Amino acid sequence: MFRLIFMLCLLSQFALHADAVRLNSSSSESLLNADTTVLRQLLNQETLIRMSVVKNVHNLMKDVVTLKDSMTSLQSEVISIKQKSKDEKDYVMKELEGIKRQIKLLNETQMIFEENLKKQNSSGLNLLNMLESSQAEGRAFQTDTLKSLEEVKKNNTDELSDITMQVRVLSASLMRLNEHVQQQDDSFHERIENNYKAASALFTNVSINVQEKTNASLHDLMSKLSETKQNQLRLSAAVLSLEWFKNNITGGVMESSKKRNAPIAFTAGVTGSDHYWSSGILVFPTVLYNTGRGYDSSTGIFTSPEDGTYVFYVTITSYNSKSIYVDIIKNGLSKVRAKAYSSNQSGSNMVVLSLDRGDKVSVNFHSGRGYYSASTPVTSFTGFQICCF
Questions:
Q1: Measured between alpha carbons, how far is 210 from 181 in angstroms, rounded to an integer?
Q2: Are 214 and 156 in contact (CB under 8 A)?
Q3: Phi and psi dihedrals of 246, rounded to 5?
């Protein structure tokens, strides 16, 4: 722009100078030629200047158009920025309104919480008083319970000692019977009958006493009660053995029994624990005794080799604090159930079954999970024949 103004000023000066030259042309011919030459030069310079001015004007117009385009773009961007600012402002205002509502709700919740806290504090005081009274009653009850437990423990210890002594006496009686069974006279049958009746009465009295004592005991005496139950089952087996001896002697089978093979019997156990076992047949792979080949250690199933009366006995031990229930099964039907629960406790049960040849007996899962055993089996399965048909 300044360059254009400068060029216009030059053109004005040249025009003034040309006018002055024309006015003074009449004064001197010698100066005319010189002025003519100068005028031509000036005219040539003016033409050049005009062309330069036109060129600059065109460039200036282009710059103006470019500036207008830039202004239009800037205006669009400004409008876009204003719109974004407006949208962001609306969004922020909405967020602020939501935050205000949340703050209001929080204030209301806080007031409600403070009211509930006051109510809970008042009820907590009452509860604390009740708790203190309950604790006092609990301490009194605990003292009474400990005294009762001491008395029950003392009674059970005495009872267990009596049972152990009675088992020893009964075992000694059985040994004496086995040693002298062939040396007895006609009164042997009568003595056996008397011993059988005495053992049966002793077993009945012991069972009644043990049942009365054990029903009054608590969870802390479960292990001793389990041992008592096993002693009862051993007494039952001893009584059944006495009955077998009586039947054989009465029927005159003692002589022929010498010619027979060993009786059908087995004992098998588990030498490891399995805390995941929860279905199917419990297989006892470690065979301790198996005459008659009735028990299959690969399947855990006893198959009766011949008709007869059999006794089966199972002992199951729980795994840690889990419980486990198992059944003695005959041909798919449950006959008796043994249970064990909490802290590796043992449970046992026994059953007398009449079997035909080919009947199958096994120990099956009923409920619970897992069992415990050791290298010397504490989970075991036993069966033996007491009479044949």
A1: 32
A2: yes
A3: -60, -45
pLDDT tens per residue, range 175-200:
666 565 555 545 555 665 666 566 56
Mind spelling out the 3-state secondary structure of the chain? CHHHHHHHHHHHHHHHHHHHHHHCCCCCHHHHHHHHHHHHHHHHHHHHHHHHHHHHHHHHHHHHHHHHHHHHHHHHHHHHHHHHHHHHHHHHHHHHHHHHHHHHHHHHHHHHHHHHHHHHHHHHHHHHHHHHHHHHHHHHHHHHHHHHHHHHHHHHHHHHHHHHHHHHHHHHHHHHHHHHCCCCCCCHHHHHHHHHHHHHHHHHHHHHHHHHHHHCCCHHHHHHHHHHHHHHHHHHHHHHHHHHHHHHHHCCCHHHHCCCCCCCEEEEEECCCECCCCCCECCCCEEEEEECCCEECCCCEEECCCCEEEEEEEEEECCCCCEEEEEEEECCEEEEEEEEECCCCEEEEEEEEEECCCCEEEEEEEEECCECCCCCCCEEEEEEEEEEC
pLDDT at 12: 63
So what's the pLDDT on residue 209? Answer: 60
Look at residue 254 and tell me whether its pLDDT is greater than 70.
Answer: no
The alpha carbon of residue 385 and the mean position of all alpha carbons in its chain are separated, in whole angstroms, by 45
Closest CA to 171 of 253, 179, 246: 179
With a cut of 50, say whether residue 257 has pLDDT above it.
Answer: no
Task: Write the pLDDT tens digit of every residue in 307-345.
Answer: 999 999 999 999 888 899 999 999 999 999 999 987 778
Residue with tokens 């059988």: 196
Q: What percent of the chain has pLDDT over 90?
A: 27
* Cβ neighbours of residue 38 closer than 8 Å, sequence gap 6 or more: 21
**Quick one: average pLDDT of 371-383?**
93
For residues 9-29, give the mean pLDDT. Answer: 60
Question: Cα(326)–Cα(287) distance, rounded to whole angstroms?
Answer: 20
Cβ atoms of 286 and 268 closer than 8 Å:
yes
The overall pTM is greater than 0.70? no
Could you give the domains of the chain? 262-389 (2.60.120.40)
**Residue length of the chain:** 389
